[in-house]
Structure of Dienelactone hydrolase domain-containing protein:
Amino acid sequence: MCYDDNARPPVPDGADGQAQGEDLVLTAADGNRFAAYFARPAAPTGAQVIIYPDVRGLHQFYKELALRFADIGIAAIALDYFGRTAGLTARDDSFEFWPHVQQLKLENFFLDVRAALDYLRSHASAEGATFPVGFCMGGSLTILSGSDRSFGFAGLIAFYAGLSRPIAGNGTALEHADQLVYPLLGLFGGADQGIPVSQVHELEEKLRQRGLEHQIHIYEGAPHSFFDRRYSEYAEACADAWQRVRDFIAAHSHSR
């Protein structure tokens, strides 16, 4: 599990605190109803993100993360993975996520992504640069969805993406890395026991061979899930991660 119920995303510099958020129930093309959360900025920049959570799906950390993005002018929608198997039930610490993770299929996830993107593009910006932002399993899914040109992403942002575990019945993130068609920003903890630095370097090499624009940064001494404002010892890494995300979004929004 990436984040427990007490985890909270760091607050980015300059956040205005004026964003408004709302819980949603969206419907995918196959009829699946799933939970999502939309955060609308008071002063939109035109850029927007779709947030892929960790293995627990849409819980409070990601709703607050959507608000933090919106506080800096970036519209955000976060989606849940488990509408087909767990319905619209809560995703707090009591949620037994693993049986639902095992049933997750990439083609179904992509249907949900398209429904969330449709909502985002009709309620924020139809033409705005759009970036998936994924954490842990969501980081892996960011890489897996990065080979589909039809999503029209401007770039991919992955925090501590699991690289070697098969995801959604469709291989590993490392196996898909040489199929990416969008620039990638990857952020990793150097002390992450589940993602060896050697695997991160392997990811970099695959992207280099692919000729794909990428930025990979490893925070020395930082563990998995370091992006959490409870941990003052990682405050500098969190601030740097926010700045890298903002710079990446700005650079790839302006180039469109």
Notes: The chain has a mean pLDDT of 96. Residues 20-254 form a domain with the Rossmann fold fold (CATH 3.40.50.1820). DSSP finds eight helices and eight strands in the chain. The chain has one domain: 20-254.
